[in-house]
Amino acid sequence: MSIFPIALPTTPPLRRSLLSTLAIGTLALAGCGGGGGSSAPAFFPTTPGTPTAVAPAPAPAPAQPADPAPSVPPGRWTVGDLHIHTMQSDDTQQISTLDQVLAKAFDEFGLDWAALSDHLRLSSYDNDGNKLAAQIPFSEGMAKYQVPRIKALQASGKYADKTIFTAFEWDMPSHDHGNVGILTDNPMSGAALKAANQFEYLFTNRDPALFPAADVAAWGQKAGTGYNTHAETLAAIAWLKKNYPDTSYLQINHPSRNPGKYTIAQLREMNDLAPNIVFSLEGMVGNQMEPDRGGYNSAYIAANLPSRTYGGVDYLVAKLGGTWDALLSEGRRIWNVADSDYHFTVSQGQYSSGYAPGEYARNHLWGDIKDPKSLLAAMRTGKLFAVNGGLIDALDFKVQGAKGISEMGSELGAKPGEDLKIIIRFKSPERNNFEYQLGSGRFANVKPVVDHIDLIAGDVTGPELPGTPGYSRDTNPSTHVLKRFTRSDWKLDADGYFTVSYTVKAGNNQYFRLRGTNLGTDVPNETAGGEPLPDAQTTGTDNVARFNAINARNYGDLWFYSNPVFVKVSAQ
Description:
By secondary structure, the chain is an alpha+beta fold. It contains eleven helices and 30 strands. It has a 15-stranded mixed sheet that branches. A five-stranded antiparallel sheet has the order 19-18-21-25-24, with no helix packed on it. It has a two-stranded antiparallel sheet with strand order 1-2. It is globular and about 65 Å long. Helix 3 runs antiparallel to helix 4 and helix 6 (230-243) packs parallel to helix 7.
């Protein structure tokens, strides 16, 4: 993450003509799209001390009863975050103690699970922000401070019903950041903490003198001397696969934030080496309160358009037919997630970074989640949708054929020419977490409204082989919006869900996925033909006005993305 001083450069005006309104403190965000697919987000004036409720659009008439619901695997919908920093990361500016971070995640914003992921660097502070006499490897700080406090809280009954575990954010050699979780058979046990310590020794440039001499002798040589090659990253993944094949993961964080950090061939290599470990991409990135949305602060030139966010979403995922679609076209089970990357929201009255865990970015995950290991198992299934700003809080997305029903992350078998019924049901919350002014605790009573949902389809053509030109293919030309649904298409069912269905003929092996937004299809500087446009920098020398403009920018531009449903077509 990066921080921004009070003096910011002057750039062209913001995409919305709201800065002048924000500067006098009279704006709240209506958060509803145009329904007809062409209008901009609506804003309305209000007195900051008395937020005004937004009247929701008239509810469509209830639909006829739907088909009987199919039986589903045991589990429930849960919400969580896999990328959260505490005071043990030096760049958090010592804003929130561990206890305060957990309180935000669970008490204030209602998460069910969370992975703490402080930087795997030298750490200068304990859980409470007390300066240490000397810097220590973070894995040591995890063992001395973070894990004992989490265990003490849960043993006392606090968060006893929540799933909490410690991971770390690794500076991947030659790449950017990745969240690494090493659970072992007993997460946060002595063995798990020792594994994290060993990983830090082997796969960073930490001085061996910082580790116990007996361990260094037993662990042997580091993976590399330069800490700067893709081969070293592959060596770390191979080590995880050898030692913790079922109880570890590596998630690629904010993949396009810095230009040139990954090629798709390298992403394929990582997934090929350990598909059970490298299976998730943080496409809906955190640090959304940065002036450069997501902290994507490379130069604003045409060459860096692939290193922008688009509606707060990494280009890798947001680009229709782009890198994520290219990976899905091989049938790879690589899932998109949304995280907070929380460091702090504002600091020293000058800097802004990101929202608290659960405040803006939320992963909705289905599973029988009881502990970190069952959470990891649920993540691997891919039955997950990721949301920013509370655009929706429930989604059923199914493909039904003669052989049954498949959901996000799974595969349906079908015969050529068979009818496939695609079923979409969703809800939005009564209000999201938009406050005005930022940090005031006063919610603007905004009920988010979905403008449209895109049903996206792409062909699955099979795996690309190393050493062939296809291994560097970073597009899927077959990907397209199969159908765009608006409020004129969906109906309200007896359970309070908006529901719509669509029937297609099974043809090629395919996948289907969804994205939805509160924006119309052609909003100046936001969308064009339904596709999100690159996010612009939000600037201004008045700090409070800038913070409020960033917050309004984010809540005026909301998206959700589902994971795909695969369909395998065969004559049998």
